[in-house]
Amino acid sequence: MHVETLSIFCDVVRHQSFSRGARASSVSQSAASQAVRQLEKHLGAQLIDRSKRPWQLTPEGRLFFKGCQELVERYHELEDAVRHRQNPSGRTVRLATIYSVGVHHLSQYVDRFRAAVPGAAVDLQYMHPAEICEQVANDRCDLGLMSFATPRRELAVIPWQRQAMVVACPPAHRFAARAAERGVRPAELAAERFVAFDRGLPVRRAIDRFLRRHRVEVTVTAEFDNIETIKQAVDEEAGIAILPEPTLRREVRRGTLVQVPLVLPAGEPPLVRPLSIVHRGNRRLNPAVTAFIELLAAGAPAAAAETAEPRRAARAVGGRRRNAVRTAGADPQGANP
After folding, report:
1. Across the strands, what pairs with 173?
2. What is the average pLDDT score of the chain?
3. Gap between the Cα atoms of 182 and 1, Å rounded
4. Tens digit of pLDDT for each residue in 228-287?
């Protein structure tokens, strides 16, 4: 039985859908269905009970899937090991990230990784959070960086950063004078014109919960799905916004926007945007991916570039870098929170 057939079966089960499993395997839905039927004929056992809606794995199917998944992943690991034995400088970390992490911020990590691991590669792609989960779960990316990540069966989540949320306003706004003084209390946001994230985004739900907890109602003047557009709307005085502090540093330096801290009662937890590293659950990570996770966890100071851990990882990895920013003319600094 071909490994490709086993891989298709695993994708169908993992996505609980013939159509989504077929897309993950880059085949047609009919080809995926035929592959599963071939497996069932070869084994002489029904793996999927199609009489139920939605379909379910049979006991034999559950048994086969568990072992099949381990077999397919082990095969790919062996294939990768053989290829890199022939070309030890060919390892690449496939990294997917939300746009608002920022090119400059991530480039510091990529540059440190390349310096510590000569010849290493980072294939960096920017995409929507939902796409990151799909790409990582389907093993098309090794790692993802995203906010408000939720652990699930196919994804492991490693906490990375907790970014303070602050009030963003134009320099002429009355809150601007509070930037260097006492900040703004949540109650003072009441009735303010407010530029918000789109409903349904995790960051919007977190901000809405924060406002409700403090019994604050604002007047939403606009809703957007990316930070860059929100900052532009605030600059054009459409209202104020609550945004992660690191995403405002460029505008604060230029003087186009002002960031004002939120002042909370004693004991009140701060409002933060949690960023996490995600990877496929229940699988071994290759040395390059492990080294990059350790570098991310260590932080970005330049002085850390020569730490012993990346040097030790350098013996195991190599490659080249391809930076593929997938965005249609947008500034990667701001989109998809």
Report:
1. none
2. 82
3. 69
4. 999 999 999 999 999 999 999 999 999 999 999 999 999 899 999 999 999 988 777 877
| Domains 88-158+275-323 and 162-273 in one fold | yes
Task: Say how far apart CA 154 and CA 337 lie, in whole Å.
Answer: 22
Give the whole-angstrom CA distance, residue 99 versus residue 215: 32
- Could you state, in order of their start, the residue ranges of all structural domains in the chain? 3-85, 88-158+275-323, 162-273
What is the C-alpha to C-alpha distance for residues 39 and 34, in angstroms, rounded to an integer?
9
Per-residue confidence (pLDDT) for residue 85, from 0 to 100: 54
The third-level CATH classification (topology) of the domain covering 3-85 is: Arc Repressor Mutant, subunit A (1.10.10)
Name the nearest CA neighbour of 57 among 10, 1, 19.
Answer: 10
Contact 94, 140 (CB under 8 A): yes
Superfamily of domain 88-158+275-323: Periplasmic binding protein-like II (3.40.190.10)
Sign of CA pseudo-dihedral 107, 110, 112, 114: negative
Does the pTM surpass 0.90? The reply is no
**Strand partners of residue 258:** 169
Distance of CA 7 to the CA centre of its chain: 24
For residue 93 the two structure tokens come to: 């970390």
Spell out a b/e string for 307-328, using b for 16 or more CB atoms within 10 Å of the CB, else e: eeebeebbebbbbebeeeeeee
Q: To which residue do tokens 């190599």 refer?
A: 318
Q: What topology does CATH give the domain 162-273?
A: D-Maltodextrin-Binding Protein; domain 2 (3.40.190)
Contacts of residues 230-234 at CB distance under 8 Å and 24 or more positions apart, as own/partner, are 230/168, 230/195, 230/196, 230/197, 230/334, 231/168, 231/257, 231/334, 233/195, 234/168, 234/169, 234/170, 234/195
